[in-house]
TrEMBL record:
Membrane topology note: Multi-pass membrane protein
Species whose genome carries this gene: Congregibacter litoralis KT71
Name used for this protein in its record: Uncharacterized protein
Broad class of where this protein is predominantly found: membrane
Family the entry assigns: Belongs to the TsuA/YedE (TC 9.B.102) family.
Claim: Signal is one of the keywords in the record: no
Annotated TM spans: 20-42, 82-100, 120-137, 157-174
Length: 179
């Protein structure tokens, strides 16, 4: 384990320098504002993908819910939005980065006291809560913290403090489950 980068990848291959990664993320955020007029986000694209599935399976339901109508009502296609392409590009870019650095493989990151099944169940529950919360808040953590923080939004900075505080409290509470 390196003292400079305390998290060791399971492959043993080093991660990028986090400062260089932060600078590159800032450049991508700037380009996103320049091209789309909006910042980065993840939950909006995933939400539109789910609405597209809903519209394919239950179009009558989509046409009766005002929230869904704005995205997929009538002849609207929920996939015709820049955030969908950003989400697909994010996944493809992450996969390409893993391939290029030789770190792409299937694994379940977990502590020694937790089984793979429990780890996946907890991850699913956490992801579902995060997604639900993101829709309630009309934006996810990446959209609020990265994009809102970059334009010095007070609400985004307060949200970031709350998220980090909550995450540390939750991590402290669940540390025995993980370790």
């Amino acid at each position: 384990m390196s003292a400079r980068f305390p998290v060791t990848p399971s492959t043993g291959k080093p991660y990028w320098n986090p400062y260089l990664g932060g600078i590159m993320l800032g450049v991508v955020l700037f380009i996103a504002y320049l091209i789309t007029g909006s910042g980065l986000g993840a939950s909006g694209g995933m939400n539109r993908l789910l609405v597209w599935v809903q519209d394919a399976l239950m179009p009558e339901h989509v046409d009766q819910v005002p929230y869904l109508l704005k995205m997929a009502g009538g002849e609207l296609n929920p996939l015709k939005n820049w955030i969908v392409y950003l989400t697909i590009g994010t996944i493809a870019g992450g996969f390409a980065s893993g391939l290029l650095s030789g770190r792409s493989h299937w694994e379940t990151n977990k502590g020694p006291q937790i089984g793979k099944g429990t780890r996946w169940i907890l991850a699913f529950i956490g992801g579902a809560l995060m997604g639900y919360g993101a829709r309630l808040a009309r934006g996810c953590t990446s959209g609020q913290i990265l994009s809102g923080g970059a334009v010095m939004s007070t609400g985004s900075w307060l949200m970031m403090i709350g998220v980090f505080g909550g995450a540390y409290l939750l991590a402290y509470s669940f540390r025995k489950t993980w370790n």
